[in-house]
Write a structure and sequence with these properties.
The chain is mostly helical. The chain has a single domain, classed as P-loop containing nucleotide triphosphate hydrolases (Rossmann fold), CATH 3.40.50.300. The chain is 55% helix and 5% strand. A four-stranded parallel sheet has the order 2-1-3-4.
Length: 387
């Protein structure tokens, strides 16, 4: 048994093992003051196995703070004056194909998206990049450990990490501090969240979108599964925002979401997460996400929403993107087509993870809890329909 464990251990890249054991997770670029406030909100409780990770975050926050202070001094005023151009928000559950859709849309050079470094260091990336990027590039895994998708500091990334760092308010923090999950779970939609948390989150989203747009001088395409439950909040900030939702068969989402969470939680966590609660967490999170989505979807003005199916996007990507551009009244797709086709050719050999079958009892629970999604999208509930 010990020999087999050693073989498995050696098969994991060193950078990935270091990231899991000592990396700062999703809090690399937090400022020291915000780190202290976040820790105070969680009673300074870090379980023993994660003390090294907490020390790493503390040191990183002390290094980040001077850059953040200087950056605010240099750019703060101009960021506040930046008029945000119509952003596009990609919506959809975790593991529904949002990353693939985001990467496809970002081939259009008339738009921009925050990259991984910017989401890791949202308050300091403009001045700190020259210092941190060479160091981080050497230790950043070349592929995401949960799905083998290409990973680098320059690849488009979810803005949720940046918002958690800036606002100290994100339901993703429930994976960092599971003992306080009840509070952070309210940050999925913010409908019942503490008013101060909601206001701080809105200010952070406004700031980050304006800052990244100013950096690239182009309108943004943003992607965070969490935003699927925040349509109302987003429209309060950006009334002309456009929304692109991607759906996928709920059974496929469940299997992939559960796998992803099992891989990410040990990397992000500072407290022990009871893995026997993982199935419950996935089912509840998805249900709450889409209850909020369907409750708020009607708030989107005409011409500002389009939906694609993952199953159709993977078979006819060009056709689906053409329809997206037409429905959302975006500039001509023809200018983006060559780069999109080149990207598809380059990534054509990507192979999805294979997941274990879903037990019958779990399938029954999924059907009961997610019935409204099966009904809305017309997906079969027979597992044999899946590939």
């Amino acid at each position: 048994m010990s020999n087999s464990k050693e073989i498995i251990k050696k098969s994991i890249p060193l950078t990935t093992r270091l990231t899991r054991g000592f990396g700062p997770g999703c809090l690399a670029g937090i400022r020291f003051g915000d780190w202290c406030k976040l820790m105070a909100a969680n009673s300074f409780h870090v379980d023993f196995p994660y003390w090294g990770k907490a020390c790493h975050i503390t040191i990183s926050s002390l290094c980040t703070s001077p850059f953040a202070w200087a950056e605010n001094l240099v750019y703060g005023s101009s960021i506040k004056k930046t008029k945000v151009e119509t952003p596009i928000f990609i919506l959809g559950s975790w593991r529904s194909g949002t990353t693939h859709l985001h990467n496809l849309m970002c081939q259009d050079e008339r738009y921009a998206a925050p990259d991984l470094f910017q989401t890791m260091y949202p308050s300091s990336y403009r001045l700190a990049r020259w210092w941190w990027e060479p160091i981080l590039s050497a230790v950043t895994p070349r592929k995401r450990f949960m799905d083998n998708v290409k990973m680098s500091l320059r690849e488009p990334a979810e803005d949720e990490m940046a918002l958690g760092i800036l606002a100290r308010a994100s339901n993703s923090l429930s994976w960092v501090f599971p003992d306080n999950a009840a509070r952070y779970d309210e940050h999925l939609s913010f409908e019942n969240a503490d008013e101060k948390d909601r206001d701080r989150f809105k200010q952070s989203l406004q700031f980050f979108v304006a800052k990244v747009q100013q950096t690239f001088n182009r309108p943004l395409i943003l992607k965070s599964p969490n935003h699927t439950a925040r349509i109302k909040l987003i429209l309060e900030l950006f009334p002309d925002a456009k929304f692109l939702h991607i759906r996928r068969h709920p059974y496929d989402v469940f299997r992939s979401f559960q796998h992803m969470a099992s891989q990410v939680i040990p990397v992000w966590g500072l407290q022990e997460f009871e893995m026997n609660h993982l199935e419950e967490m996935v089912i509840e999170t998805y249900r709450k996400l889409y209850q909020a989505y369907f409750d708020q979807k009607s708030l989107i003005p005409a011409g500002q929403f389009h939906e694609v199916a993952y199953e159709e996007l993977t078979v006819n990507p060009i056709q689906e993107l053409e329809q997206t551009y037409q429905t959302l009244q975006l500039p001509s797709f023809e200018l983006a087509r060559p780069k999109v086709e080149a990207y598809l050719e380059k990534t054509g050999d990507y192979r999805k993870n294979k997941h274990v079958e879903i037990p019958a009892s779990t399938r029954k629970r999924i059907r009961e809890e997610w019935q409204f999604c099966f009904d809305a999208w017309g997906y079969e509930q027979d597992l044999s329909e899946l590939n």
